[in-house]
């Protein structure tokens, strides 16, 4: 797929609030090399922020439920804890994707700009 088409599709994903679909498209744009436009950088930032924010909100909700369950019957505590850990692992993967070698190159390029 051509770069322009990937960026267009990423923008379309953003409008549809399909941020998990948006990230791989933009990562491919970064991997192709070349300077990212301001619009492309904004799309990439938005995609990662939204993907991360969604998981963070989920983590907060599950963590709160876990605390309430711990105070109560503890009947479902192991299940809740397992799900919280699953979300934590997703957050960790997102963080590693942000700081992958392609992303580091982009950050270095940004630092060189006046």
Give a structural overview.
It comes from Fusarium solani (Filamentous fungus). This is 14-3-3 domain-containing protein. The structure is a single chain. Mean pLDDT is 86; it is low at 106-114. Helix 1 (3-15) packs antiparallel against helix 2, helix 1 packs parallel to helix 3 (38-71) and helix 3 (38-71) packs antiparallel against helix 4 (77-98). It is elongated, with a radius of gyration of 18 Å. The protein has 114 residues and is mostly helical. The protein has a single domain (3-112), classed as Delta-Endotoxin, domain 1, CATH 1.20.190.20. The chain is built from five helices and no strands.
Can you tag this structure with a few keywords?
single chain, 114 residues, mainly alpha, Delta-Endotoxin, domain 1, 82% helix
Question: Concise description?
Answer:
This protein is mainly α and 114 residues long.
Task: Show unreliable segments.
Answer: 106-114
The CATH architecture name reads: Up-down Bundle
The first-level CATH class is given as Mainly Alpha
CATH topology: Delta-Endotoxin, domain 1
How many helices does DSSP assign?
Answer: 5
Domain 14-3-3: 3-112
Protein name: 14-3-3 domain-containing protein
InterPro entries: 14-3-3, 14-3-3_dom_sf, 14-3-3_domain
Organism: Fusarium solani
């Amino acid at each position: 797929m051509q770069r322009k088409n990937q960026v267009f599709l990423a923008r379309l994903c953003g409008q549809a609030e399909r941020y998990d679909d948006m990230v791989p498209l933009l990562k491919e744009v970064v991997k192709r090399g070349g300077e990212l436009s301001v619009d492309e950088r904004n799309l990439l930032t938005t995609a990662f922020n939204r993907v991360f924010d969604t998981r963070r909100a989920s983590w907060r909700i599950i963590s709160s439920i876990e605390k309430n369950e711990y105070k109560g019957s503890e009947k479902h505590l192991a299940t809740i804890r397992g799900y919280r850990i699953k979300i934590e692992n997703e957050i960790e993967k997102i963080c590693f994707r942000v700081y992958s070698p392609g992303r580091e190159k982009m950050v270095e390029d940004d630092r060189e700009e006046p």
